[in-house]
Amino acid sequence: MVKLAEWRGKEIFRRYGIDLPRGAVVRSPAEVAGALTGAGVPFPCVVKAQVLAGGRGKGGAVRFATNLAEAEDATRAILAMEFKGEKVREVLLEEKLAIARELYLSIALDRSQRLPVVMASAQGGVEIESVEESAIARVSVDPFPGLIGYEKRRLLAALAVSGAVARSVDGLLDQVWKVFVQEDAELVEINPLAIVGDRVVALDAKVIIEDDASFRHPEYADIRDDRTPLEEIAREKEIAFVQLDGNIGVIANGAGLTMATLDVLAEFGGRPGVFLDLGGTDDPRKVTEAFHLMAQAKPAAVFLNIFGGVTRCDTVARGLVDAMQQVPANERFPLVARIRGNNEAEGVAILQKAGVTSLPDLKESVQAVIAAAGGPA
Amino acid sequence: MSVLVDRDTRILVQGITGHQGTVHARNMKAFGANVVAGATPGKGGQQVEGVPVFDSVAQAVKATGANATCLFVPAPFARDAFLEAVDAGIQLAVIVTEHIPFHDMLTMYHYGRSKGARIIGPNCPGIASPGKTKVGIIPNVVFHPGRVGVISRSGTLTYEIVNGIKERGLGQSTCLGLGGDPVVGTSFVDALPWFQDDPETDLVVLVGEIGGTAEEDAAEYIGRKFHKPVIAYVAGRSAPPGKRMGHAGAIIARGKGTADSKLHALEAAGAHVAKFPYEIPALVEQYLPKRSAP
Fold first, then answer.
1. Which residues contact A303 (CB under 8 A, 6 or more apart)?
2. Nearest-CA distance A169 → chain B (Å)
3. Residue B292 pLDDT
4. Hey, what CATH topology would domain A229-372 get?
5. B66, B165: one domain
6. Mind telling me the catalytic residues of A?
7. Which of B137, B238, B243, B252 to mutate to test the interface with A (most CBs of A within 10 A)?
8. Same domain, B189 and B116
């Protein structure tokens, strides 16, 4: 899931011919004058923080400027902001257009139908979740013919557009569909889509690119996302690793088992701090890497819950013992294990020899790790 | 009979010459499955685990009569491999491969459907009917023939649950892993009717997780049409919104896909809900209909 900042989304839109306000990105107030002139942005202009979180307008992360000094001041103020925990690194400066009406348009995946769904509403510029269902048109699109004429006419009717504006939206729908398919997007959202004169202009861009399609899109590989630094390292090592608010690390194999383990931990008053899914690996090196990652998250205690099915318990146990020996003494943490399934007795014996007790019961082992982390919350 | 596959299912393994393909072809055979062929472009003529390898699926089908395929093909090539199988007349594909882009899966699903082909997965452990056959990677050791049907979105968690059921002396009719991706070829709603019609299944254990609305859809179906007892469990109650929990499909997005929503729907539909996985075996024992000895 690569969430793109607005300006990156708009760069993609531009490549597909989607109409945009004139604009430029800056990273310091000193760049403002040159950027405005270079992109031909007139005053008044809009100054927008490039962050991934929503609600920028209400949160003071979008400002207006009527002259260069104001634009520089607004840029300086926004660059100094931390918006919903995210440091602002880029600012987008854009022309302020005379908007007749604001619309909503998006394409996302409908998992139940296994089809992309285009959503359109004449009530744009507000969060789509706050728009009543009856005011949103949804059109499911078969990937084979793609978005076709009658489907577009339904969307145009829902947007209450006609004449030249309708023709503009019609062209836009084709472009947005192409972005969704060709860029392997999970979401393409334009909100608001503004009617300006007799055309429509994308005032915002929210694009999420699918991670799994990265083999087709090396251009997105270096984009900073909302992952933590450790999550970023884990991603490179192909380990499913999620940092949470608590202090107890969980290492398990399989996403379902890892989630279930966190649930049991939370139920008994433990606070999960790291979700680490080893997956179906039987590679001791990967276990070692996972263990190092966990150490860097500095958990108060770690619970290792392994069910050996495809993966054998003794292989995991061996990798674990290797990893423990490589972690410096001052970085070690209390460890509680539960290792069950294929070659269980050998796995338990290997851990035992290394001084780690493996308890067979999930409830008991969870309670033991909570105690090791300083007791329930 | 069993669900979807049986002793006479003739299995092709696409990607049999890779590490995963070789290991699991061996395991399938050890389970008693009828693995008849492998296919890897450019590697035709070899034997892997005593199974002949062909360059194309069409050749494999022609020579061996394969009628189901198990895919271990790396994600960038999975769409190609699946479409090749469909065009060669294969009607059932178990796709083990993880990280297939969902855009690829959309075209695979709809293309397959137009040709009458069914997909299990992707990113799934596959299907196993103890004593009969197995297509996929479900570990052989946890199984025991019996009357409990299992349908699950997860892998290891399912093995653990099945193992717990086995430790109570109860066995499984068919265990079906649907996969952890946002777009899967077979959902709970697709699979439940098969278990309804399967005379060897007396109870179904449904293992869901956060993300999407597959469990809510299942609940709607169970409430209206499913007449066997259902034990349901949903993983991810403590997961925060917006985070992808290991599976591509396990994410609470825009308020949709929470465990609570799924559990409420399943409970309202008459399923017996387990709060924790370790409660499932006892619930199975409690609700499994008694059968008089034959």
1. A248, A249, A250, A251, A261, A265, A335, A336, A337, A338, A365, A366, A369
2. 24
3. 65
4. Rossmann fold (3.40.50)
5. no
6. 104, 189
7. B238
8. no
Q: Answer yes or no: is the ipTM higher than 0.90.
A: yes
Residue A160 has pLDDT above 90, yes or no: yes
- Owning domain of residue B240: 139-287
B72 and B163 in a single domain? The answer is no
Is B242 among the domain residues? yes
Asked whether the beta carbons of A297 and A249 are under 8 A apart, the reply is yes
Q: What is the mean pLDDT of chain A?
A: 92
Whether B165 is in a domain gets the answer: yes
CATH topology of domain A101-220: D-amino Acid Aminotransferase; Chain A, domain 1 (3.30.470)
* DSSP-assigned beta bridge partners for residue A363: none
Number of domains in chain B: 2
User: What CATH number belongs to A22-95?
Assistant: 3.30.1490.20
Chain A contacts of B217, Cβ < 8 Å?
A: 112
Residue B116 and residue B193 share a domain: no
Residue B267 CB partners (closer than 8 Å, separation 6+): B232, B273
- Contact status, residue A370 vs residue A376, Cβ threshold 8 Å: yes
| CA-wise closest residue to A358 among A311, A329, A320 | A320
- What pLDDT, in 10s, does the model give residues B202-221? 999 999 999 999 999 999 99
Question: Mind telling me how many Å the CA of B292 is from chain A's nearest CA?
Answer: 32
| Between B15 and A229, residue with greater pLDDT | B15
Asked if the model's pLDDT at residue B294 lies above 60, the reply is no
pLDDT, tens digit, 9 for 90 and up, residues A317-371? 888 888 778 877 777 888 999 999 888 999 999 999 998 888 999 999 999 999 9
- The answer to the question of residue B53 being in a domain is yes
From B19, B99, B144, B247, the catalytic residue: B247
Same domain membership, residue B170 and residue B225: yes
Q: Flag if A255 and B240 touch (Cβ within 8 Å).
A: no
> Which of the four pLDDT bands, split at 50, 70 and 90, describes residue B116?
very high
- Are B150 and B260 in the same domain? yes
B199 within some domain? yes
Same domain? For B106 and B150 the reply is no
Give the domain ranges of chain A: 22-95, 101-220, 229-372
Query: Considering only A48-62, A216-230, A236-250, B132-146, which range has the smallest mean pLDDT?
Result: A216-230
Tell if the CB–CB gap between B247 and A256 is shorter than 8 Å.
yes
CA distance A336 to A372: 8
CATH of the domain at B29: 3.40.50.720
- The CA distance from B24 to B70, in Å, is 10
Q: Are A372 and A336 in contact (CB under 8 A)?
A: yes
Q: Are A55 and A17 in contact (CB under 8 A)?
A: no
Q: Cβ–Cβ of B235/A275 closer than 8 Å?
A: no
What is the mean pLDDT of the segment spanning A274-289? Answer: 81
| Interchain CB distance below 8 Å, B106 and A277 | no
> Chain B residue closest to A239 (CA)?
B246
Question: Which residue in A143, A253, A275 is closest to B245 by CB distance?
Answer: A275
The reply to whether B152 and B273 lie within a common domain is: yes
Residue A259 to residue B209, Cβ atoms within 8 A: yes
**Nearest-5° Cα angle at A328, A365 to A247:** 40
Q: Report the CATH number at residue B255.
A: 3.40.50.261
How close is the nearest chain B Cα to the Cα of A221, in Å?
15
